[in-house]
Amino acid sequence: MALSAVEVEHINEVIEKEPTVAVEHNIDDHVAFGGDDQWYYNPNTRRFDLSRGATRRLIVDADDGIRNHRGVEIDPEKTLLVIIDMQNFFVHPSFRDHSEGIKTVKPLIGVIEKCREQGIQVCWLNWGITNHDMKVMPPAVTRGFNKALSHEKGHGWHVGLGANLPQEQGGERCLFQGTWNADIYDPLKDYVTPQDVRFDKARMSGLWSPDLPMHKWLRESGKKTLLFAGVNTDQCLLGTLTDAYSWGWDCILISDCAGTMTDVMGAKEVCDYNVATNMGFVTDSATFCAAPNTG
Prior knowledge:
This protein is an alpha/beta fold and 295 residues long. The chain contains 10 helices and 12 strands. Strand 10, helix 9 and strand 11 form a beta-alpha-beta unit. Helix 8 runs parallel beside helix 9.
């Protein structure tokens, strides 16, 4: 659905209200990127400073060999781990063999634990639709969940958003809010805490509109740096990351905590490359978990 003139005006108002961040840096020793809200690159350390002047920083190695730098410094208090679509419907073996998604669970748990230690908040962003969403959903989105049109209704990889799943898969409506199939993947449930935030989405991206709850919460929270994990790398994860990049959040992809069922054309590798060279930075769970902090 194209944005209306009112929505465009609202977006412009949001941008204009973005706070100016003043950070003291010796520009002779650092290269500045951005307008008011800047990154600083130190040629000596080959690191980007994304901390906006924070005293306590986490130093994360990233992308070495791709863009000839060694990583980033981030402010844990203004960082959010965004875990996308790690839901029973996408990962649980009763629905499909998502071996790449299951592979992400162990390293993701390590990253979650590191985030808890460093005071980095965790966000669970999942499909969770309503009847209203079904009425206003663009046709391209619904088609993406009905690819098995040549099969009898209810069969195939995709059964259709809102359709009743087979009884052996719970019999609930597909990816509806409050259902087991839309809930967080069972092995990860033990790692959810009351301090976490959870958001539902009805598109590949959870940040496509400034009126979405997650979009509003992020702006109000002051979070600036987003760590990305989940499934599928080339679909919902990339869609959300792309919108986050366009809206001005820092984006860091934790590569081995992201998986996809797209097994052709090097989909995951292309995503990793594009994030590392254009939209942000790429690291891995072992590197992130070993990251030292200062202050």
